[in-house]
Amino acid sequence: MPPSINRREFVTVSLATGFALAVMPDAAAEVISTSSEGLVAGEVKIPAQGGDMPAYRAMPQGKGPFPMILVVQEIFGVHEYIRDVCRRLAQAGYFAVAPELYARQGDVSKIANIPDIVQKVVSKVPDAQVMGDLDKTVAWAKGTGKTDTARLGITGFCWGGRITWLYAAHNPTLKAGVAWYGRLVGDSTTLTPKHPLDVADALNAPILGLYGGADTGIPVASIEQMRAALKNANKTAEIVVYPDTPHGFHADYRPSYNAEAATDGWKRLLAWFKQNGV
Question: Is 86 part of the annotated catalytic residue set?
Answer without folding.
Answer: no
